[in-house]
Amino acid sequence: MTEGEFEKHRSQLRAVAYRMLGSSADADDALQDAWLRVSRSDTAAVENMGAWLTTVVARVCLDQLRSRRQRREVHVPDPIISPEDGVGPEESALMADGVGLALLVVLESLSPAERLAFVLHDTFGVPFDDIATVLDRTPEATRKLASRARRRVRGQAPDPDPDLSRQREVVGAFFAAARDGDFEALVSVLHPDVVLRSDGGTARPQLTLTIHGAEQVAAQARLTSQLAPFVRPVLVNGVPGVVVAPRGQVQVVMAFTVTDAKIVAIDVLGDPERLADLDLSAVLE
Question: Could you tell me which CATH class the domain 164-284 is placed in?
Fold first, then answer.
């Protein structure tokens, strides 16, 4: 197989790997591993090159997920940060159907087999017969894995409102209320069952927490009201979010999921090491 043939499918394969692994860096590593596996392969008999390469990348990702679970790693997805005025073509291809950060967080809770079955079938339309080959299971067992994963995703990662401008209004109202310390206004834009998930890494363990409920999240937001002047609106995985950067130094990235004009999830990355790896030049200019 030539590198040119592989490159023709890189965009699609990287989207598969990112959805599977929740990390753009890990996705790139998976593609490199996949290329090493197929570079000496005779592909003359391959009828659908894209589908075949997808299964190769899926196997690589499955190995990574299983290794990650054996080491008991806590792996929080990497956000894709874009300027507020739009997502570039490379980021758009990577996100494939709008991979919100909240969805990726839920995918992290699935078993490796469930995640693969759900991602390949529900997002990329891979037949269950092909997925079953990757997982070494029957097509019926694979179908059950995807169904179980689908129920969890629907219950924990609701789809955001389709109107991006309306989402921005709700997020803007949240920060206006936080800046003013207006508890009632904060609660009014939060869904009663809103969840805030934050990852501070090993350097900032005080930022690693999960908070449920509108009043509890509103109380947490009021505690950070002093950061409101340093909020820079961005898109995080294609939905409204912010970068908080006092004096140009990034402290946190926040992503919001807005459903029926209420914030249902807030995902926060505050790990300095992870933040340092993000390319935020386009949003900090």
Answer: alpha beta
